[in-house]
Every structure is written in structure tokens, then in C-alpha cells.
Write a structure and sequence with these properties.
By secondary structure, the chain is of the alpha+beta class. The chain folds into two domains: 101 residues, Ubiquitin-like (UB roll) (Roll), CATH 3.10.20.30; 123 residues, Alpha-helical ferredoxin (Fumarate Reductase Iron-sulfur Protein, Chain B, domain 2, Orthogonal Bundle), CATH 1.10.1060. The protein contains nine helices and seven strands. Helix 3 runs antiparallel to helix 6, helix 6 crosses helix 9 and helix 7 crosses helix 9. It starts with 6 loop residues before the first strand and ends with a helix. Bound molecules: iron/sulfur cluster and FE2/S2 (inorganic) cluster. The site of FE2/S2 (inorganic) cluster has 12 residues, from loops. Iron/sulfur cluster binds next to helix 4 and helix 6.
Length: 244
């Protein structure tokens, strides 16, 4: 029986930086669309039927692990949350996210970058208190707890970094994800760092003063974290520090 499924043309940048003979090349793959097809399914079909060598990252397929960020028709987004039906002409171009080291094809090393950023901003509770698991935890104001949980929803997908023009111009820019992390710990009553301590970490053009408020981070963040609002909040605090 003849299928009415439309044909998708998916163009993918193929490149293996670890092979000296490899050159960046766009390759077109044609597959039949299936109902409810996500880009994860489309890429899995391509790898299964047309190109066993194609590299891309997925773990959860549910927008939770943050592994599958890529440029879809030039826009950074999670491939597992992207439906092929939303591309009316059936043509989709996929490229690896900029600002990260390419591993191969669509696979980039966000983990290495996130690890460096986490160490740089001290992404853990800084406290002089020792932990006693026999003691009941100190209570936190529910509103403050809500605020930290909201910022903790970040899945480290790197999409805000790949969306950021400042990051492209300033390779050492800490990115919205890093600034968001600083805000998260600055409002956490368990963390003993002061604004002056945070100023030492982000009080320059590779930190809070580098952001040009172009909104790319917030526009593309798949978790809708209010990044620009939080960056503005922290910038005001850091300006006060600079003026003291
Ligand atoms: S802030 Fe948003 S876009 Fe940036 S890494 Fe976290 S979830 Fe991804
Ligand atoms: S595969 Fe986990 S977020 Fe897409």
C-alpha cells in the first residue's frame, strides 16, 4: 500500500575533527516522516538506515538530561523536544552548537565547558558549618526555597551559551548559565559568600558586565528560566560593589 507520509530532507553538518582527512561537509538525508516524529527519532532512523557513522547525543529523550542541544535551522534547541511536523516545507538543517568543542558531527562537549564554569564560579554551597546528618536541617523561608529551586531547574544544555553573541565575541565569558548559578548561590541562605566574594568571581567583562542584554539566552532556554531578569538583579548588586 502506498504511504502518504511526506519525505523529509535533513541536511547535517558532518565533521570529525579527530580525523585529519575530514572536512566540514553538509550531507542531505531523505527519510519518510512518521506521526509524532521528533528529531531524535529522525536522527535515529538516519543512523539506523542511512549512515551508521552519524554522531549525535541523546540520553533521556524527554528534555531532562540536556544532552541533545543542536542548531535546528540556525536556532539552538533540544532535538528531543523538536517535532519534525513544525517544519512545513520538510527541510531541516542541523549543525553542532557553536561555543563548544566539537566531538564529531552534531556531538559537542558541553560537559567539559560546564565543569570549567562550575569550578570558576564555585558552584557549590560555601559554608564553614560541618554537616551533621543526625540534626534536623535549618529551615529556609519557602519563598527563598522556591527561588533557588526555580534556578536549579537548569539542565546544563548549553543552549543559552550557544545563543549568546557575547560568548561568541568573548570566549571567556561565563555565560547566562554561569551567572544564573551565581544568583542561585547568592540567594541561598546556606551559602556564606558575600556580594564582595561574588564580585571577585564575576565583577568584570567576562562576567556580569560583559552581558549586552541581547536576550538570546532567555529566548531559547528550554526551561524558561528568567535569565535576563536574574542577570539584571545581579548586575545591580555588582555595580554597588564596584562603587564601594
Ligand atoms: S539556563 Fe537554560 S539554556 Fe542555559 S544551560 Fe540552563 S537550561 Fe540550558
Ligand atoms: S535527550 Fe535529554 S534533553 Fe534531549
Amino acid at each position: 500500500m502506498k504511504s502518504n507520509a511526506r519525505e523529509l530532507t535533513i541536511s547535517i553538518l558532518k565533521f570529525n575533527p579527530h580525523n585529519s582527512n575530514s572536512r566540514p561537509t553538509m550531507v542531505d538525508y531523505k527519510i519518510k516522516e512518521r506521526p509524532g516524529m521528533s528529531l531524535f527519532l529522525a536522527l535515529s532512523t538516519i543512523r539506523e538506515k542511512l549512515d551508521h557513522d552519524l554522531a549525535f547525543d541523546f540520553v533521556c529523550r524527554a528534555g531532562i538530561c540536556g544532552s541533545c542541544g543542536m542548531l535546528v535551522n540556525g536556532k539552538p534547541q533540544l532535538a528531543c523536544k523538536t517535532q519534525t511536523k513544525d517544519y512545513k516545507n520538510g527541510k531541516i538543517t542541523l549543525m553542532p552548537m557553536p561555543a563548544f568543542e566539537i566531538i564529531k558531527d552534531l556531538s559537542v562537549d558541553t560537559g567539559k565547558w560546564m565543569n570549567g564554569m562550575s569550578k570558576r564560579v564555585g558552584s557549590w554551597i560555601h559554608t564553614s558549618e560541618s554537616t551533621d546528618i543526625g540534626k534536623v536541617e535549618r529551615r529556609i523561608d519557602p519563598e527563598v526555597a522556591y527561588d533557588t529551586f526555580e534556578l536549579d531547574r537548569c539542565i546544563e544544555c548549553g543552549i543559552c551559551v550557544a545563543s549568546c553573541a557575547t560568548k561568541i565575541m568573548r570566549p571567556d565569558f561565563v555565560g547566562a548559565v554561569g551567572l544564573n548559578r551565581v544568583v542561585r548561590f547568592s540567594i541561598d541562605p546556606y551559602d556564606e559568600r558575600t556580594d564582595s566574594d561574588f564580585y571577585e568571581v564575576i565583577g568584570d567583562d567576562n562576567g556580569i558586565f560583559g552581558c549586552m542584554s541581547l536576550m538570546g539566552c532567555e529566548d531559547h532556554c528550554p526551561k524558561d528560566i528568567p535569565l535576563q531578569h536574574k542577570i539584571a538583579y545581579m548586575r545591580r548588586k555588582m555595580v554597588d560593589q564596584r562603587n564601594t
